[in-house]
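Narrative of activities, Objective 1.

The group set out to show that a structural description can be obtained from nothing but a protein's sequence at a throughput compatible with the screening campaign. Below is one input-output pair from the validation batch, recorded exactly as produced.
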Amino acid sequence: MTSVEADVSLRARFETIARDHGPALQRFTRGYEADAGRQADLTQEILVAIWRALPTFEGRSSMRTWVYRVAHNVAVSHVVKSSRDRLTRCIPLEDVDGTLARDANDEAEHRDGAARVAALVRALKPADSQIILLYLEGLDHAEISEVTGLTATNVAVKVHRIKDALRRALASGGIDGSR
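Output recorded for this entry:
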């Protein structure tokens, strides 16, 4: 294959990835950023990382799992870079029940049930939010294990605990303090 053919093939593979996984990556970034502009920036960072890493994809996992692994790595780096302030506001999983609307800067976001879940997920510790975001995107425990490096059993336990905590928080009025 010539270098021109390789470039065309690489571009076609990337366009397929962007088309097939773009909406999921946008949903994924909402779990890390509340601000729409920062979500778009993070999605762009992820797509750039996928483009750069695509020539090294060896097919040892599914393309979907590989894309989420790249997204996970970029999101972790993003959190580390911008997290000094954010980490001071993160809450342990055990304290999700008591979380109320401390960020009143975007009341409209908290009216919608999906936005409430996203706000609760953003309030979790980064490791917990990563796991539940991957779960919400339909990855099974084994795939989440591949992405995060945790065992599938550990992932299953964490997913169960996070879902339970989120369910309790939503039932009690959760992040928007409506009850």
